[in-house]
Design a protein that fits this description.
Layout: H1 5-18, H2 23-30, H3 34-41, H4 49-59, H5 63-67, H6 79-88, H7 92-107
Helix pairs in contact: 2-3
């Protein structure tokens, strides 16, 4: 079975947009150039297997959903998916800061359940 790059690129594009990411942001999270991401999304070229695996991880989808035609690439986005996507681009120091900020905010009662 020959892979149709156009479908793979469109599935990646749909998953990226559902996460609210730009091509540039996704390229940085996956570790490829913006131009490579753009060309592959348009289906002019294909993604490497390594890149497909990274894309699936960053976008919180299965590799099947990226590779298969007529398979929805995106599950409905949840707050945890969004949080994961945002934190994926953070350094260890930034993540430590965020964790401490949330702990302190909860301790001070800044997050009250409605």
């Amino acid at each position: 079975m020959k892979m149709k790059y156009r479908y793979v690129g469109e599935n990646v594009r749909q998953a990226r947009l559902s996460k609210g990411l730009t091509i540039e942001q996704l390229a940085e999270l996956v570790g490829v150039s913006d131009s490579y991401m753009g060309v592959a999304e348009r289906g002019t070229s294909g993604f490497s297997i390594e890149t497909i695996v990274k894309l699936a991880h960053v976008l919180c989808v299965t590799t099947d959903s990226l590779l298969m035609e007529n398979t929805p690439a995106c599950e409905p986005s949840s707050k945890m998916d969004t949080l994961f996507t945002v934190l994926s681009g953070c350094s260890d120091d930034e993540i430590d800061f965020i964790i401490e900020y949330v702990k302190l905010s909860k301790k001070l009662g800044m997050f009250k359940r409605k």
